[in-house]
Amino acid sequence: MAKNVLFEIGLEELPARFIDDAEKQLEDKTRSWLEEERITYTGIETYSTPRRLAILIQDMDENQATIEEEAKGPAIKIAKDEDGNWTKAAIGFTKGQGKSVDDIYTKDIKGTTYIFVKKLIEGKPTKDILPEFKRIIESIQFGKNMRWGEQSMRYARPIRWLVALYDKEIIPFTIAQVQTNNETFGHRFLGDKITLHHPLDYKEKMKDSFVIVDADEREKIILDGIKQIENQHDFLVPIEQDLLEEVKNLVEYPTVFVGSFEKDFLQLPEQVLVTSMKEHQRYFPVKSNSGELLPYFVGVRNGDSHAIETVIKGNEKVLRARLSDAQFFYEEDQKQTIDFYQEKLKNVVFQEKLGTIYDKVNRVISISKKIAETITIDENEKKQIMRAAEISKFDLMTNMVSEFTELQGIMGEKYARIYGEDEAVAVAIKEHYMPTSAGGELPKTLVGSVVSVAEKLDTIVGCLGVGLKPSGSQDPYGLRRQAIGILRIANERGWEINVAELFNIAVELYESLNLEHFNIELVQQELHDFVQQRVAFVLKERGIEQDIIQAITGEEIGVMSAIIQKASILSSKRNEESFKPIQEALVRVLNLASKTDEMEVNAAYFETDSERSLYEAYEKIKQSYQSWLEKDNYQEAFVQLEKLAEPIHQFFDNNMVMAEDERLKTNRLALLNRIAILLNSFANLNAIEWKQHF
Fold first, then answer.
1. Whose CA is closest to 252, among 309, 217, 292, 302?
2. Spatial CB neighbours of 542, under 8 Å, sequence gap ≥ 6
3. Within a 10 A sphere around the Cβ of 558, how many other Cβ atoms?
4. Residue 426 pLDDT class (50, 70, 90 cuts)
5. How far is the CA of 292 from the CAs of 169, 238, 260, 295, 592, in angstroms?
6. Rounded to 5 degrees, what are φ and ψ at 259?
7. Strand partners, 259
């Protein structure tokens, strides 16, 4: 008879950002464990709230599956002696498997005969295995853990109760001195202690105690409530998925409400209002159908609708106080000048070994200038870049950004306009922080792109130079993300700058500064591999195979736009059946060319027409290949290399490369070496595992 099983982990309030991942881990780990333990079931449902993680396993078999397993013993030459009798090795093997020598049979594996026996592994009662589930609970990983009381265990939050039911029976185990039981708890303020008599009662019992354990159901309640408010008030409430997911994980029993604030606050920049609502209060901003921000907000209460008007007034009061602060900061900030804030940067440390933010800004100015000199831009754009770099950090010293750190760059753009700065400079102050995540939005302007890259180059090279290399999951300065940002911007902009040369701009600057704690040798050791790994990440995100990544980035990294184009070309070629004979020809050249460093080809030594044809094809194709490269057309450049395949095949069909005549051999190897150098200028084709795809 099938049974139902429920496990619930009762916790102090979990951070909202941990919950969805923890719930998924609970499901994935449970499924793997049940499969490993050979326990069948019909379905799994997982639940989560800020105070609990739970899983319901439906129709679980009462016993593990019984299986027949094949056990492999020693080779027959060890299992039998010269007279054909079973040796101690064979007897010991069978005894260890609960069998006798009469149960032995043999099988050949790769030319060697081994002895085997089959044994029946009886399934244990499921209820005897279920206490081991504590290992699943203990194995759930969180972004940050803590200890509590005298416990050695580390978990996201202290465990306060554990439910473990096998139908009506309690599954016995203890975690962190908390013993399993059939008692759980409802809503912290509206609910009571609940005694569960059966796993299938869980969801309804919790709802009766004001806890919606299904996260998707809570999300639907929130969305339905917002839709109802939109219809009643003719509002438009933009839904950001990240905010919705966070809010659903902050409440156990959601009730949606609408509040308001004074219209006068609408004079503040929209980002200030939205940030105050979303980031600090977890409210949804409200807009008109034409997209204008309105003096209303939508919130979600953790509870029912009782005394909801009082709740609304309380939330309005909190938001009013925050917006009043924002208005005061906004007005006070405008009483000072950019130069005033620039001067204050001298008193704020960026990194103890790299100086102040003011020092960093000066380095960003120098790097920006060098980049501007490297790419093709006009004098006005150069001036805009230099000014944007110079004032890129001034808003960090404003009252508004000190209070609302999420507004860095955003307020810089706003204030720069107010202070009469060039529009391109104002936009660049915001854009120089982009992208804020590995796949985030890139700067749209050239000025913003240059200052963004310069700022990131300074951070990466500076941090590596003082020993702050990322390790494992630890990357407090976001160096990996910033390196990916540099590569993405360089590609998007189509900058014809070698990636190594781009990073070297910052290296040379630091070298000239002679900072006490900066180790130039350390940077030179670390930088190539660090950047190469980020290039590999960018290519992998585009679906490029690992061996092609190695072929493209094995030696010098090169220009980012070229890297991506070449990788895409080779990735598509490996899946074309028609490319196989071309690949075979090119790789054959590469293999033989590795046997020599000779470069001098003497046409007078050619004996066959195929030798002359290959040499002539090489000379012609080389020119055409270089011409397409100069136009940044890597597709057509590779087409030229493909044209070498037929004369290469003819060459190998009609010539012995490793001829006895040393003069002929050397000349032929030199010809192949020249072709190989041409091929390798595109990519290391030998690194590609072509054979796996044909």
1. 302
2. 564, 567, 568
3. 18
4. very high
5. 58, 11, 15, 10, 69
6. -125, 175
7. 297
Using CA atoms, how far apart are residues 579 and 639, in angstroms rounded to an integer? 11
The C-alpha R_g of the chain, in whole angstroms, comes to 34
Q: Quick one: DSSP state of residue 113? A: E
b/e map of 640-658 (b: 16 or more CB within 10 Å)?
bbeebbebbbbbbeebebe
Cβ-based burial of 52 (10 A; exposed 0-12, middle 13-18, buried ≥19): buried
Q: Is the pLDDT of residue 694 over 70?
A: no
- Exposed/middle/buried for residue 31 (C-beta within 10 Å: 0-12, 13-18, 19+): middle
The β-bridge relationship of strands 159-166 and 178-181 is parallel
Q: What is the pLDDT of residues 664-684, one digit of tens each?
A: 889 999 999 999 999 988 988
Strand stretches in 261-400, DSSP E = 284-287, 293-302, 349-351, 355-356
Query: In angstroms, how far is CA 311 from the centroid of its own chain?
Result: 39
d(CA 84, CA 567): 61
**Chain centroid offset of residue 32 CA:** 24
CB-CB contact of 684 with 555 (8 Å): yes
For residue 165, list its beta bridge partners: 6, 170
Q: Of 264, 263, 287, 255, which Cα lies nearest the Cα of 274?
A: 287
Backbone angles phi and psi of 437, in degrees to 5: -145, 170
Find residue 71's DSSP bridge partners.
117
What whole-number distance in Å separates Cα of residue 528 and Cα of residue 86? Answer: 61
What whole-number percentage of the chain has pLDDT above 90?
A: 77
Q: Is the pLDDT of residue 363 over 80?
A: yes
Q: C-alpha dihedral over 89, 94, 95, 98, to 10 degrees?
A: 160
How many angstroms separate the CA atoms of 227 and 237, rounded? 8
421: nearest Cα among 331, 339, 332: 339
Distances from the Cα of 686 to the Cαs of 550, 653, 690, in angstroms? 10, 22, 9
Model pLDDT for residues 534-564, shown as the tens digit of each residue: 999 999 999 999 888 988 887 677 889 999 9
Asked if pLDDT for residue 30 goes beyond 90, the answer is yes
Alpha-carbon span 115 to 103, nearest angstrom: 10
Tell me if 154 sits within 8 A of 20, measured CB to CB.
no
- Between CA 387 and CA 433 the distance in angstroms is 16
Query: Which ranges of 37-149 does DSSP label H, i.e. alpha helix?
Result: 76-79, 88-96, 126-129, 134-139
Task: Check whether 693 has a pLDDT greater than 70.
Answer: no
Q: What integer pLDDT is reported at residue 28 of this predicted model? A: 97
Pairing between β-strand 254-260 and β-strand 193-195 as defined by DSSP bridges: unpaired
pLDDT band of 66, cuts 50, 70, 90: confident
Q: Is the pLDDT of residue 689 over 80?
A: no
Q: Where are the beta strands (DSSP E) in 251-335?
A: 254-260, 284-287, 293-302
Residue 5 β-bridge partners: 57, 166
Sign of the Cα torsion 165, 168, 171, 177 reads positive
Nearest CA to 433 out of 362, 470, 485, 507 is that of 485
Tell the residue number behind the tokens 């595992």, with chain if given. Answer: 689
Task: List, for residues 588-611, the tens digit of each pLDDT value.
Answer: 899 888 888 878 888 888 889 999
For 110-150, the pLDDT digits (tens) are 889 999 999 888 889 999 999 999 999 999 999 899 999 88
